[in-house]
Design brief:
7 strands, Rossmann fold, 7 helices, alpha/beta, seven-stranded parallel sheet
Length: 233
């Protein structure tokens, strides 16, 4: 895919895979809107891209908050143009250390679903309409192997990612033949702050670098049909 001149919106872009995706998209010529909650880290990520010659803008917002969604979508489009690619990367594990489902508070489950499932649904709705009018676009939802495997203590996160995968498949079925693709991607285990919070004793030297995973994701999108679930490990 030729990213030159394309407009991309990446959530959870202040660190980890989101930041790596934003950097790689900009390196390939896309104009990128970076979204995250923390203003300082987000501005730093966008400034780093601009210092390397890319086009990047920071949009501070929480995808888990209903009232933030249209503000995020509107600001991103105003800054980089109509969105050609939406990367739904922002996620939360819930409280750590991770808990058994019987020990998980209902409010914590609700927050995980708000960030990992409902927020992506709302943002996809806010952005995909413009894609439909133009007859092209791609929405990429970052999933996990926890969407398929029942790991103890990962219940809230797992449920959110399993539902996100199926949401992608339904969007893809409903929008078949429109030119708008919905794809989910399992990036595998990466050396990120989220992985460290979930598995603090893991050997980080054995984990994939987010920068390498970001390249693999973008390289694989051309071959991905709508509704596909990509595994980049």
């Amino acid at each position: 895919m030729d990213w030159r001149g394309k407009a991309a919106l990446v959530t959870g872009a202040s660190r980890g895979l989101g930041r790596a995706l934003a950097e790689e998209l900009a390196r390939r010529g896309a104009r990128v809107a970076l979204v995250a909650r923390g203003e300082a880290a987000l501005e730093g990520a966008a400034a780093g891209i601009r210092a390397s010659g890319g086009v990047a803008h920071a949009v501070v917002g929480d995808v888990g908050e209903k009232r933030a969604i249209h503000a995020i979508a509107g600001a991103a489009a105003a800054l980089v143009g109509p969105i050609d690619a939406l990367f739904l990367n922002a996620s939360t594990l819930g409280p750590t250390p991770l808990r058994l489902l019987l020990d998980t508070d209902c409010e914590d489950l609700e927050r995980v679903l708000a960030v990992n499932l409902v927020g992506p649904f709302r943002l996809a709705k806010a952005v995909a309409g413009s894609m439909l009018l133009r007859g092209s676009g791609v929405v990429v939802a970052v999933s996990s192997d926890a969407a398929l495997e029942a790991y103890p203590r990962w219940g809230a996160y797992s449920a959110s990612k399993a539902a996100l995968d199926h949401l992608v498949r339904v969007f893809a079925a409903e929008l078949a033949e429109t030119g708008v693709r919905f794809v989910s991607v399992d990036p595998g285990d990466m050396d990120t702050d989220m992985h460290a919070a979930a598995l603090p004793d893991a050997d980080r030297s054995r984990l994939a670098r987010p920068e390498d995973v970001a390249r693999r994701i973008l390289d694989s999108l051309d071959r991905a049909s709508s509704g596909a679930r990509l595994v980049t490990t």
